[in-house]
C-alpha cells in the first residue's frame, strides 16, 4: 500500500520513517486490558523476541482494521519481533503483546515463540540489548552502552 504506513516506504530499511510517539495512553489502546485473549486464559505472556507474521486473513482484513491493529498487521508482512514492532511503531511493549494476542486469536497474525533454550543464551540476549540500544530515542539520540 502507498498509505505511508506499510513496509516498502521511503526509509533506509524499506520502512517509512515513524513520526512522534502517540499521546494516547496505553490503557486506552488496549481498553484497560493487560493481557490478550489467549494470554488471559493461559496466564503466559509472549516474550519480546516472539516473531509475528501477518496471515493471509490478516492481510485481507487490513483495510477493516483500525489504528494500531492495522499498523501491526501491515508491519508484519515480513517477520518482526514484538520488540521490533514496539520500537518501529513507538508503542509500549505490553500494548503490542495484547494487540498481537488479539490478532492471533482472530487469525490475523501467526505467532512463533522461539525455543526457550535458545533465548537463555547470553549471546542472544547481548545482541538483543545491542539492537535495542541502536534505536534512537525520541530526540534522535542513541543510548550509551554499558
TrEMBL record:
Source taxon at top rank: Bacteria
Region annotated Disordered, chain positions:
1-20
Compositional bias (Gly residues): 1-13
The name of this protein is Multi-component regulatory system-4
Task: Identify the species of origin.
Answer: Streptomyces phaeofaciens
